[in-house]
Fold this protein.
Amino acid sequence: MMMKGTVVMMTIVLLLVSVKAVPQDGDFQKIPFELANGLILVEASVNGDTGSFILDTGSPMVVVNPKNISDLQISRTQSETAFRGQPVLVKHFAWAGIEREGLEALAMDMSHLEKASQRKILGVIGYEVLRKYELMFDCRNQVLLLYEPKNSWVHLQQAPLFSARFTLQDELPVITARIGKKKVRFGLDTGGTSNLMSQELLQELPATAHGALEKEQVAGFGNLPEYKDAASIYGIQIADKTFRNSRFIFTDLSHLKRLKVDGLLGMPFLCQYRFSINYRKGEIYFWPHGEEINYRRI
């Protein structure tokens, strides 16, 4: 996808490979994942059908591919999200020890994604499933850790380098940052394979805040190639940490107007660190990369 509002990266060419979650002792889950072209892919099941799901903090709910999932029931509930699709009722959903009966979801055609990736895609896991937990992303070791926020032993084992508060806008985590003297708002998008910034914000930044503009090919509507301006942004400050050089694609984000965001931080930005998103506390934490954390029993 060029932009959020539907399942973010539905139009990007992906190589999707799934792996199973490993049940753990105690009240946390260690979940291997495949980082495929910057996208997190996990395995989950819906109505007895098991397969590949995208883990996407930019999605407000579970989205399913009706072509690959059986026994979906049409729901009378009207979706209040910006997603375009058919509301459906999922009889049973299971992922990483989380189970839901009678789950409200959204059915969307994903044939363009399957054609591009040549893989069978079942859907997307979003906020509705993640909202009660803290979720740690270890991109280097390709492991997720899912646990209740009260289990702060991860933070005690190694203190984060820094953290930032976020608010939820239509279930999308949004942080406040600065580029020079300009205050900006970024959505945290683990479903994004690129960092996106609005064309309007680019025009407001001084020339010293970004590098030379270049054309970058991306997948557009119908998976057809499009060319967008792209450049490095210098000196993004989040809390007391400065990110000196981050590459962004500049595009029209007018469909996100009601979210009041200037851009989306995708996996290229977030995976510079090991990070966790704590939905209950409204906080994102960052640690340095290293060996896989010791997931001890509490």
Remarks:
- The two ends are 40 Å apart (CA to CA).
- The mean pLDDT is 84.
